[in-house]
C-alpha cells in the first residue's frame, strides 16, 4: 500500500523562533509552528504614515519581512486552521491582528490563543480554550503607536528649527529626560549643611565592646566639643535594656519593574540586558511571561511553591499567600514573573541561571513564613549628659523566608541593618568608654538616577508600561540626551574630634564627595532640549498628562473609550500648539554669558553650536570673527566657569617633533588627544590635556607604537592588531578584520591570523558581482541576496521582464546604464543631488554661513 505524506492541518504562528522550537515539541506532528519574528507590519519608516483627517494608519510590510510573509501565506494555504499564538499583551494582540489581516485569515479559519508560560500544560490548555482577536487590546496598541508617532513627527521638526538638526522628541522619552534634568538641577542647587554625629565604643566588665550612637546630632562644632568635655569625666551606666520581638516579611513576587530594579542592584545588569535574558528564560520555558505589572500568582503556582517549600524546608516554613497589585492600571489578567516548575532549582547556562535564581528565590520566599527577630536596644548615659547613647542589635529567632536566600539579610535591607549581636548587660551596670568620636558630616543632595531608579520613578508616576521601560531608557541614551559619564569627586575638609583616655584630640581630614558613576547625567543638548520643550510644550511634558494618556490607553483596552475619539481630542489641542511654537518661539541654545575675556575685552559665551556645546569669544556680527572652542566631555554649559572656559583656548598647542613628525595636543569630537604626524592618539580618561608636556606626549606616542607594532606577517606584509568601536580586530594592508570571541585575542597564532585574513579576503572577493568605482556604483552580494549600492545608499534589484528574479550570473552582464535606471526608478534625485554643490557656488555666501564654517574649523 502506497504511503502519502500528510501535511499538518494546523499552523501555529508565534513571535520568535526560540518559542516556536519549544512549542513544536509539545504539539507534535499535527501542528506546524512558525515564527513571525515580531511584527510583520508597521507604520512606514519614512513619513508620518497616518491620515490625520481620520487617524487611519497606513501600515506596510517592511522590506525585510516580505519574504517571510510570502512563506507564511504559502503555509496558510496548506492549513485548515491557523492558531495565532503571539504574546498575551497588547503588542502581542496587535501582532496577531496584523497577521490575520495580512494573511487574509477568515474568522472561521483562525483562532487566537494566549498563555503566560511555555509549558506543555499551558500550551495544551490554550489550544482547548481559544478565542478570537480582542479588538479593544489591538486598538489600545494602535492608539499608543499612532499618538507617539504624531508627537514624535510633529515635535521633532520644531526642535530641528529651534535647537539643532537631527534631534527627536517623544511622549515618554521626553518626560524621562525631564526627570533626569530636574534631578541634576536639584543637585546643582543643593547647599550641604554640616552637623556633628557622635559615636561611642563602650566596654563592659568583661571588656566586651558595645558600639552606640548619640541620639542627637550637634549643628555646631563648639556644642559637640562641649559634650565631649562633659563625657570625659562622666561615669557611664546602662540606663535601660529593652528587648522586643519583630518580624520581617518577604517581598511580593517580581513584576517587570521590580525585576529590572533587583537585577540592577544585585547583578549589575542594565534594563536592556535583564529583559533580553528574561525573554530567553520565558521562551525556553523556565519562567512565566516577563512583561507584567501584576504580583498575582495562580493557584497552580501557589501549590507548586508550597510542595517545594515543605519538601525542602519543612511544613513550618510554608505560608501560602496571594498578593494584590497596588497599581489600578495593572494590565490585563497577568501573573507575576515566576518559575514554571519549582522543582527546577537551577539551569545550566551560567548567565541565565543568575537571573533565574533571582526569580526562583523571590517567588519561593513570597510563599514562606515571616522571619522572627528579637530586637535589643541598650540605652547608655549619665544624668549630667544632655543626651544619651543608644546601641541596637538583633537576633534572628526563626529564619522563615530568609532560608530561601541562604542569608540573614533581606533584599530590602541596607548596610546599617545587618544582624548585630550585643553582649548581655543589666540595667545599672557600669560601662567604661573606650573612645567617643564627633565627626563632621554634610547632608547629601538627592541621588542621580540609576537605570533601575528611573524605571521605579516612571512606574511610580504611572508613565509607560512594562513593555516600554527598556526601550525608553535605551532611546534617551541613543539620542545622547543623557549619558552615564563618570563624575569626578570633589574634596572638602571635615573636622573629627576623638575623646580617648588622654583627652580630646582634634584633626582636620579630607573627604571626597559628589563623585558618581553609572548614574544618569543629562548632556548639554539634553538640558537645552528639555528646557525648550518644558517652556513650550508644558502639557506634553507634564507628568500628570503623560500618566492620564496611559489611563486612556487602559480605557480603550477595556472597551470604555473609542481610540479615534481620543486621538481627535488630543490632536485638536496638540497641533495648534505645534504651529504656534514653530511660528513664535525663540531659538534655544542654552546660552550663558560667562564674563569678559581679559585679552580682547569681548563677551565669553557658553552655548550649543552646530557641532555641540562650545565656548565663543566675541559676537556673530562683530567685524572680527568670533573664536570658538569645544567643551571637554566632563564639562557642562550650565556649570562651566569663565576661568575653565578660557583654559580651553590654550588648546591645541604644539610640542617638539618626535621622529621627525610634528606633535600637538588638542580636544576633538572623541575627547582629548595627542596628534603625532597624521595619527590621533587618545589621552587616557580623566587626564587633563593641558597637563600633557613633552615627556608625557612622548610616553603616549611610545605606548601607541608598541600597540601598533606588527604581531605577525601575511604574505610578507605586516599584520597589526587593536581594539576599536566594534571590538578587537587585526589589520592587514588597509583591511580591518574583526576577531570573533572564539579566538584568544591576546595570543593569536600564525594559523589564526592566516585563517582570519583568508576568510576576509575570500568574503571580499565574493562581495562584488560588478563594480564601477568612478561612479561609486556596485552590484554586491548581501545577506538576503544581491543589492545595488550607490555611495552609501542601497537599492533593490527589480525582477526581470518575465517576473523572475535575477541570479548572480545574470547580474554579471547587466550594463551600467541599466543599473542607473534601477536607481533612478527608486530615487529620481539620486544623480541630480550631485549637481547641487556646483549650483551653490554661483550664489553669494551669507555672512552667518561663513561664521559657521569658522566654528567647524575650530
Automatic annotation (TrEMBL):
Q: Where is this site: Interaction with DNA?
A: 39, 144-145, 148, 160, 291, 479
Sorted alphabetically, the keyword list is: DNA-binding, Isomerase, Magnesium, Metal-binding, Topoisomerase
Keyword Metal-binding found: yes
Task: Enumerate the residue ranges of region (Interaction with DNA).
Answer: 168-173
Do you know which SUPFAM superfamilies this protein is assigned to? Answer: Prokaryotic type I DNA topoisomerase
Q: Which reaction does it catalyse?
A: ATP-independent breakage of single-stranded DNA, followed by passage and rejoining
Q: How does it assemble?
A: Monomer.
**Known EC number(s)?**
5.6.2.1
According to its UniProt entry, this protein's organism is Epilithonimonas mollis
Report the GO molecular function annotations: DNA binding; DNA topoisomerase type I (single strand cut, ATP-independent) activity; metal ion binding
Q: Which SMART domains match?
A: TOP1Ac, TOP1Bc, TOPRIM
The record's InterPro entries line, in alphabetical order, gives: Topo_IA, Topo_IA_2, Topo_IA_AS, Topo_IA_cen, Topo_IA_cen_sub1, Topo_IA_cen_sub2, Topo_IA_cen_sub3, Topo_IA_core_domain
Topo IA-type catalytic domain span: 134-578
Q: What's its job?
A: Releases the supercoiling and torsional tension of DNA, which is introduced during the DNA replication and transcription, by transiently cleaving and rejoining one strand of the DNA duplex. Introduces a single-strand break via transesterification at a target site in duplex DNA. The scissile phosphodiester is attacked by the catalytic tyrosine of the enzyme, resulting in the formation of a DNA-(5'-phosphotyrosyl)-enzyme intermediate and the expulsion of a 3'-OH DNA strand. The free DNA strand then undergoes passage around the unbroken strand, thus removing DNA supercoils.
Superkingdom of origin: Bacteria
One GO term under biological process is: DNA topological change
Question: What family does the Swiss-Prot or TrEMBL record give for this protein?
Answer: Belongs to the type IA topoisomerase family.
* Residues annotated as the enzyme's active site: 289 (o-(5'-phospho-dna)-tyrosine intermediate)
Q: What is this protein called?
A: DNA topoisomerase 1
Amino acid at each position: 500500500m502506497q504511503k502519502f505524506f500528510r501535511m499538518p492541518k494546523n499552523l501555529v504562528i508565534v513571535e520568535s523562533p526560540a518559542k516556536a522550537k519549544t512549542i513544536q515539541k509539545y504539539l507534535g506532528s499535527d501542528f506546524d509552528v512558525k515564527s513571525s519574528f515580531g511584527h510583520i507590519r508597521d507604520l512606514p519608516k519614512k513619513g508620518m504614515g497616518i491620515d490625520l483627517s481620520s487617524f487611519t494608519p497606513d501600515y506596510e510590510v517592511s522590506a525585510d519581512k516580505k519574504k517571510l510573509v510570502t512563506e507564511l501565506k504559502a503555509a496558510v494555504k496548506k492549513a485548515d486552521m491557523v492558531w495565532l499564538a503571539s504574546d498575551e499583551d497588547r503588542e502581542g494582540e496587535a501582532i496577531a491582528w496584523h497577521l490575520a489581516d495580512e494573511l487574509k485569515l477568515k474568522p472561521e479559519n483562525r483562532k487566537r490563543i494566549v498563555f503566560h508560560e511555555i509549558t506543555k500544560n499551558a500550551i495544551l490548555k490554550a489550544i482547548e480554550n481559544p478565542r478570537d482577536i480582542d479588538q479593544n487590546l489591538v486598538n489600545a496598541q494602535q492608539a499608543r503607536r499612532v499618538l507617539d508617532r504624531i508627537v514624535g513627527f510633529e515635535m521633532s521638526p520644531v526642535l530641528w528649527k529651534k535647537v539643532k538638526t537631527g534631534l527627536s522628541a517623544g511622549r515618554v522619552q521626553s518626560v524621562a529626560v525631564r526627570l533626569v534634568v530636574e534631578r541634576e538641577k536639584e543637585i546643582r542647587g543643593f547647599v550641604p549643611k554640616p552637623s556633628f554625629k557622635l559615636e561611642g565604643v563602650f566596654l563592659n566588665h568583661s571588656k566586651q565592646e558595645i558600639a552606640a550612637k548619640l541620639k542627637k546630632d550637634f549643628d555646631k562644632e563648639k556644642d559637640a566639643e562641649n559634650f565631649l568635655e562633659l563625657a570625659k569625666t562622666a561615669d557611664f551606666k546602662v540606663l535601660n535594656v529593652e528587648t522586643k520581638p519583630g518580624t520581617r516579611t518577604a517581598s511580593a513576587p517580581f513584576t517587570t519593574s521590580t525585576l529590572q530594579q533587583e537585577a540592577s542592584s544585585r547583578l549589575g545588569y542594565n534594563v536592556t540586558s535583564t529583559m533580553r535574558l528574561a525573554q530567553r528564560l520565558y521562551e525556553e520555558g523556565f519562567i512565566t511571561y516577563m512583561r507584567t505589572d501584576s504580583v498575582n500568582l495562580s493557584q497552580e503556582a501557589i501549590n507548586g511553591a508550597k510542595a517545594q517549600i515543605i519538601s525542602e524546608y519543612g511544613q513550618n516554613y510554608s505560608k501560602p499567600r496571594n498578593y494584590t497589585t497596588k497599581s489600578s492600571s495593572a494590565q490585563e489578567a497577568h501573573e507575576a514573573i515566576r518559575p514554571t516548575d519549582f522543582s527546577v532549582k537551577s539551569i545550566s547556562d551560567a548567565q541565565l541561571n543568575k537571573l533565574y535564581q533571582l526569580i526562583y528565590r523571590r517567588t519561593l520566599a513570597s510563599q514562606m513564613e515571616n522571619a522572627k527577630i528579637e530586637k535589643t536596644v541598650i540605652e547608655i548615659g549619665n544624668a549630667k549628659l544632655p543626651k544619651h547613647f543608644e546601641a541596637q542589635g538583633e537576633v534572628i529567632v526563626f529564619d522563615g523566608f530568609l532560608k530561601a536566600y541562604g542569608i540573614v539579610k533581606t533584599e530590602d535591607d541596607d548596610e546599617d541593618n545587618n544582624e548585630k549581636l550585643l553582649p548581655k548587660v543589666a540595667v545599672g551596670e557600669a560601662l567604661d568608654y573606650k573612645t567617643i568620636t564627633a565627626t563632621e558630616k554634610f547632608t547629601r543632595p538627592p541621588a542621580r538616577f540609576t537605570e533601575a531608579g528611573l524605571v521605579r520613578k516612571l512606574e511610580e508616576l504611572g508613565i509607560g508600561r512594562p513593555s516600554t521601560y527598556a526601550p525608553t531608557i535605551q532611546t534617551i541614551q541613543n539620542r545622547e540626551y543623557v549619558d552615564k559619564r563618570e563624575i569626578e569627586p570633589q574634596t572638602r575638609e571635615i573636622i573629627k574630634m576623638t575623646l580617648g583616655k588622654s583627652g580630646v584630640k582634634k584633626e582636620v581630614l579630607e573627604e571626597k564627595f559628589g563623585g558618581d558613576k553609572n548614574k544618569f547625567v543629562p548632556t548639554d543638548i539634553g538640558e537645552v532640549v528639555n528646557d525648550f520643550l518644558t517652556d513650550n510644550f508644558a502639557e506634553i511634558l507634564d507628568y500628570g498628562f503623560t500618566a492620564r494618556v496611559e489611563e486612556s490607553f487602559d480605557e480603550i483596552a477595556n472597551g470604555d473609550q473609542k481610540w479615534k475619539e481620543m486621538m481627535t481630542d488630543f490632536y485638536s489641542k496638540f497641533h495648534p500648539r505645534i504651529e504656534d511654537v514653530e511660528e513664535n518661539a525663540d531659538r534655544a541654545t542654552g546660552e550663558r554669558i560667562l564674563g569678559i575675556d581679559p585679552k580682547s575685552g569681548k563677551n565669553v559665551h557658553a552655548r550649543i553650536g552646530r557641532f555641540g556645546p562650545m565656548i565663543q569669544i566675541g559676537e556673530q556680527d562683530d567685524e572680527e570673527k568670533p573664536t570658538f572652542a569645544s567643551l571637554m566631555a566632563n564639562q557642562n554649559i550650565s556649570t562651566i566657569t569663565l576661568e575653565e572656559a578660557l583654559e580651553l583656548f590654550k588648546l591645541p598647542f604644539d610640542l617638539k617633533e618626535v621622529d621627525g613628525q610634528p606633535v600637538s595636543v588638542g580636544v576633538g569630537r572623541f575627547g582629548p588627544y595627542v596628534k603625532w604626524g597624521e595619527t590621533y592618539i587618545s589621552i587616557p580618561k580623566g587626564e587633563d590635556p593641558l597637563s600633557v608636556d613633552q615627556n608625557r606626549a612622548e610616553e603616549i606616542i611610545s605606548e601607541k607604537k608598541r600597540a601598533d607594532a606588527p604581531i605577525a606577517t601575511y604574505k610578507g606584509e605586516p599584520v597589526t592588531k587593536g581594539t576599536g568601536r566594534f571590538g578587537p580586530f587585526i589589520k592587514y594592508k588597509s583591511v580591518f578584520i574583526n576577531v570573533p570571541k572564539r579566538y584568544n585575542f591576546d595570543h593569536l597564532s600564525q594559523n589564526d591570523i592566516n585563517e582570519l585574513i583568508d576568510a576576509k579576503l575570500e568574503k571580499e572577493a565574493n562581495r562584488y558581482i560588478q563594480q564601477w568605482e568612478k561612479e561609486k556604483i556596485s552590484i554586491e552580494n548581501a545577506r538576503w541576496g544581491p543589492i545595488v549600492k550607490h555611495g552609501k545608499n542601497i537599492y533593490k534589484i527589480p525582477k526581470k521582464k518575465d517576473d523572475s528574479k535575477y541570479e548572480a550570473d545574470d547580474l554579471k552582464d547587466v550594463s551600467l546604464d541599466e543599473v542607473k535606471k534601477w536607481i533612478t526608478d527608486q530615487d529620481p534625485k539620486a544623480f541630480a543631488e550631485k549637481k547641487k554643490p556646483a549650483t551653490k557656488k554661483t550664489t553669494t555666501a551669507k555672512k552667518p554661513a561663513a561664521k559657521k564654517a569658522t566654528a567647524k574649523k575650530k
